[in-house]
Amino acid sequence: MVKRTQPHSQSASQSEAPAVQEVELDEADILADRMRGLGAQEDIREQLVVDNRVFARITDGIYRRPSSALRELIFNAYDADATEVIINTDAPRFTRMEVVDNGNGMNERSLSNLLKHIGGSSKRTNRGREIGTASGDDADLSPGRRRLIGKIGIGLFAVAHLTTHFQIITKARGEKDWLVADIWLKTFTEDLLREAPTDGSKPKFITGDVVLSRETANSQEDHGTTVTLFEIRSATRDVLRRRELWESILDRQAIDEDTSEKKRQAPDVHIGFTDNDGVIYRVMPNLPWASEDSPETRFRRFYASVATGSKANTKNPDIDEFLDEYFAMIWRLSLAAPLPYLDRHPLKTPLNGGIEVYEIENKSKGRATPLEGSTDTTAADKVGLSLEEDPAGGFGVLIDGVKLFRPVELPQEIAKSQRPSRQSAPLLFVGKVESSLGRYDASRSGGPLEFEAYFYWNTVIVPKQNRGVLIRINNASGVLYDDRFLDYQVSELNRLNQITAEIFVKAGMDAALNIDRESFNVSHPHYQYLSNWVHSSLRQITNLLKEASKKGRSEAKTSRLTSTISAIDEGLDSIWAKRADPLEERPEIVVGEKSAAQPAKQLRLEGAVAYDVSPAVLKSVNAAKSAGISIAELGPLEIAKAVFGVMAAYGVLDKMDYSDQESMFEDILKILMVETKQ
Ligand SMILES: Nc1ncnc2c1ncn2[C@@H]1O[C@H](COP(=O)(O)OP(=O)(O)O)[C@@H](O)[C@H]1O
Ligand SMILES: [Mg+2]
């Protein structure tokens, strides 16, 4: 969900960073040297220091959820070119967590840089190219050429939400030893933050203590990083365990057996609840998978349970209703991380498959245009979207034995909805933008902005959590789907509920993202540009849907009339077969306009039953038809009586006996009712 914040809420870091770095560059190098000289049984004790109040606060925790910490650790592994991250949360006890990656790891320089430059990331800087946190020729890329997610240098301290004591064990390929950093974080008081030195020097805030040591590795080839979080904070544990909820449910059960009440409150899918020591289950888990399922099947089943669960749950689309905190965390992580999709990448949707594909036009009052092509052409091919393979060889995240995927599947068919829509196939809209912002002064425009996007429309979007638009910057996201579409002001609620969209930002937007990565600075030019584009796209989509439903209505009417006419035809055929000479062909009745040319006479010569009606009568017949006025409203009986009245006046009935008259009356009635019989 996008939240509003003040425009200047994150500028402090960037404007102050350079001055800070110059002083501390040396400190990091000195620490790196000391680490290199460390003997086997020795350690170095250091303090974690920042000279910025903001970062002091950050190391104490600005993140709102346990999932934020794991998200940042996953992002760090990605930035370090890991192909696999294995997370252990110790669920449902949550006393200790571990995140293991097989990435590039850190050497003395990058580790000391991390410890000495909190809030001053080496990524995307020349220093990063030097110490190996960025690619040598392009600081925006990882050494393995992934686009870097990290930028600010505080993500690691998201762990503060979970613990005050954590450990980093890390090794770069080719090094003899693993480096170990044991870190204890401080909890700040307002007083501590207010303290300022009296000698005029910059204030320093001690945010923690660290003990550094080395351990000989089995093989120089080993590489990667393990972050272990010890003694998870009891408040965070209680959130993860949903202790308050379970205890209130258990208490209520103890008092009376009102199970309907219990049912309403307990999440449908949950990891269970143990006593405080984690020994005895007080509530058995309700998992969406079976224990023998593979890591991938587990996730697929989890996804399916959310999809069906959100279908049943009509009033509240919040995952927190259906899932416990633990499963909500897995869901969030699967949305956030740079993972493969559960199904194919949405931009790989083939043209001429079940989904109609359109291209968004980049101008105001634009119009989406259909993309045609063979089934082996994809939307991405057609529009020239950059769907690169992961340059570092793929990225997998395993959490407690569950393999994560982006939880997105776009059905090929229209889902049935209560309110039928005229559009008969799902729609996919794709677009890309290289904005002109890069041409202007970057200090005003924010610099270049590039993105690609898709919008998928169906009568129902399942799971409900995916309604809205999700923004991914360099493959990563910290926000959820924004179901208000960046504050779209038009009341198109029904149609907006039928859209799921993702925006893949290739350049820019970083600066519009707040430092916790969980909301945007909505006044940043990039955000403004993006939201305008999203709104223009939504207009193109809703216009197309409106046209389709208008066209659908008129097509439906035409086809109704055609089928009535052919039903009349069939009816007359069977009356003919019953009453007339079956060897003779049933004559067609042709009605023309009375004129000098006398077409009826001509037609009769050709064997038709033809009549001419006076122009005035024909004119009023046509007028009555287009006005929709008709004695049809009186019903078939009244019409048949009127027709018979005329026939009687002309003496037609005189030549028939009563039983023939009766069956003729009945046949006329039947013919008049073909429409209602359908
Ligand atoms: N899993 C990891 N593998 C290698 N290096 C890491 C890992 N986690 C953190 N680091 C190092 O720690 C630094 C600080 O991480 P973080 O606080 O998340 O900031 P940022 O990612 O913005 O640089 C990173 O720049 C990186 O050098
Ligand atoms: Mg990071």
Keywords:
678 residues; alpha+beta; Heat Shock Protein 90; 21 helices; 19 strands; binds adenosine-5'-diphosphate
Describe this protein's structure.
With 678 residues, the protein is of the alpha+beta class. It folds into 3 domains: 11-242, Heat Shock Protein 90 (2-Layer Sandwich); 295-552, no CATH class; 584-677, no CATH class. The protein is 37% helix and 16% strand. It contains 21 helices and 19 strands. A 9-stranded mixed β-sheet has the order 1-6-5-4-7-3-2-12-13. The protein has a 6-stranded mixed β-sheet with strand order 11-10-14-15-17-16. Bound molecules: adenosine-5'-diphosphate (ADP) and magnesium ion. Adenosine-5'-diphosphate (ADP) binds at residues 72, 76-77, 79-80, 101, 103-106, 110, 114, 121-123, 133, 150-156, 225. Residues 72, 75-76, 150, 155 line the site of magnesium ion.
What's the helix and strand layout?
Blueprint: H1 11-36, E1 44-50, H2 53-59, H3 66-79, E2 84-88, E3 97-101, H4 108-116, H5 126-131, E4 165-171, E5 177-185, H6 190-194, E6 205-216, E7 224-230, H7 234-241, H8 243-255, H9 259-265, E8 273-274, E9 281-283, H10 295-312, H11 319-322, H12 325-336, E10 356-359, E11 369-370, H13 379-383, E12 396-399, E13 402-403, E14 427-434, H14 442-445, E15 450-457, E16 468-473, H15 493-496, E17 499-507, H16 525-579, E18 589-593, H17 599-605, E19 609-613, H18 615-627, H19 636-649, H20 658-672, H21 674-677
Parallel strand pairs: 2-12, 10-14, 16-17, 18-19
Antiparallel strand pairs: 1-6, 2-3, 3-7, 4-5, 4-7, 5-6, 8-9, 10-11, 12-13, 14-15, 15-17
Bound molecules: adenosine-5'-diphosphate and magnesium ion.
Adenosine-5'-diphosphate (ADP) is lined by residues 72, 76-77, 79-80, 101, 103-106, 110, 114, 121-123, 133, 150-156, 225.
